[in-house]
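Appendix B. One record, verbatim.
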Amino acid sequence: MPHLFYGHLQTRGVRINYYRTGDDKPPLILLHGLGEAALSWGAFPVMLEPEYDVVLVDARGHGYSQAPEDGYGPDEQAADVLAVMDELKLERPALVGHSMGAVVAAAVAVQAPERVRAVVLEDMPHQAPPNTPEQRAERAARWEEEILRYKPLSLDELIDLVHQLHPGWHPDEAFQWAKARQLVSPRAAAFNLAEWMDWDTTFTSLKVPGLLLTANPERGGLVTPELAERAARLWPQGQVVHFPDAGHNIHREQFKDFLNTVRRYLRRVP
């Protein structure tokens, strides 16, 4: 891990934690998934640091960021990211988001396209219609239950669980996942209570270049071939790259291919 500078800021009454590699390089922000944390990206920032000023953000309710009573939707989290960009004076960063982080990255790009160089959306979830308040509440309750299920476990027990569920993960990945599960607040499950932009509106509204990275639904990938095709049609500046041998965690399961795909693409984007 390169040396990381730690910092935090207050935005709209919430403390948001971040890490930064620094130096005078193009900025790149990493946005993690639900239940994880900034450091859950493992070796990814290590490999990007020679080319980028990498910033890793703990989403509200995750890691060492504060857990307010409400305000966990994509728009609120996008405002947190924009506040970090303001605080660090980041000019047109690329945004790389996994799962929930992909939804947030897309929201930032839709809200402030002139401030974003490109987005990389890793296995971005969507809320399938009819997407009623009752359905969103049910999803949020399931996530809250999952978060609470891990709370009684020690760090060692959580690490052992990761090795059982994902034997191919690097030990550092297992440690950071386990640590993130200890830190995440059950309130973070409210991300699923918010009504997100629907799939078609998201990709019609995106006016920045980027990648949609998809995985194999039979291995746990969230983006179906039909959704990927619609995104490709609605997002002229975007490209879809499929990882048939990966599940939802592409950056862990196909690390080298994921890294090379992101690195090659961002080198081409002005």
